[in-house]
Specification:
Shape: globular
Number of domains: 1
Helix content: 40-55%
Bound molecules: magnesium ion
Radius of gyration: 13 Å
CATH class: Alpha Beta
Length: 126
C-alpha cells in the first residue's frame, strides 16, 4: 500500500488518479484536512471533481483537529500514520510539513512530479 496526499497531489495530477483507480482499493489517501475546518463531505465532493471515489482507496484518513492545530505534531503525523499502517511510501507535494515525520519513521517521501512516484504506484505490489 502507498499513501497519497490529496490537495496539490491527487487534486492536481490526473496521471496519479488513473494509477490509483487502476489498483482500486489498494492505496490510502491521507490529508491534513481536519474535520472541523473541512467537513468530510467537502473532501468527497473534491475527490469526485477529479474522478475519485472513497471506494478507490483502502482508507481515507483526515487529520485529527488536535494534531492539525499543533505545529510540531502535524509535522510527524503523516509519517506516524504510514508507520502504523506498514506503509513505506508517501506521495505528497509538501515536503516542508512531512519530511520530519517521514525521516523519523523511514518513510520514502516522493513528490507527485517525481517519476519514482509513478513507478511505485505501477509496481506497488512488487
Ligand atoms: Mg498537499
Amino acid at each position: 500500500m502507498i499513501a497519497i496526499d490529496f490537495d496539490g497531489t491527487l487534486s492536481d495530477c490526473p496521471y496519479l488518479v488513473e494509477l490509483v483507480k487502476g489498483n482500486k482499493g489498494k492505496h490510502c489517501l491521507i490529508t491534513h484536512r481536519a474535520e472541523m475546518k473541512h467537513p468530510p463531505y467537502q473532501l468527497i465532493y473534491d475527490m469526485e471533481a477529479v474522478g475519485l471515489d472513497v471506494d478507490d482507496f483502502e482508507a481515507v484518513i483526515l487529520c485529527p483537529v488536535w494534531i492539525r492545530n499543533d505545529t510540531d505534531k502535524v509535522k510527524l503525523w503523516k509519517g506516524e500514520v504510514c508507520h502504523s499502517m506498514g506503509i513505506k511510501t508517501l506521495i505528497d507535494d509538501t515536503f516542508a510539513v512531512n519530511q520530519d515525520g517521514c525521516d523519523k519513521y523511514k518513510i520514502t517521501l516522493l513528490h507527485p512530479i517525481d517519476d519514482e512516484a509513478k513507478i511505485r504506484l505501477l509496481e506497488w505490489d512488487k
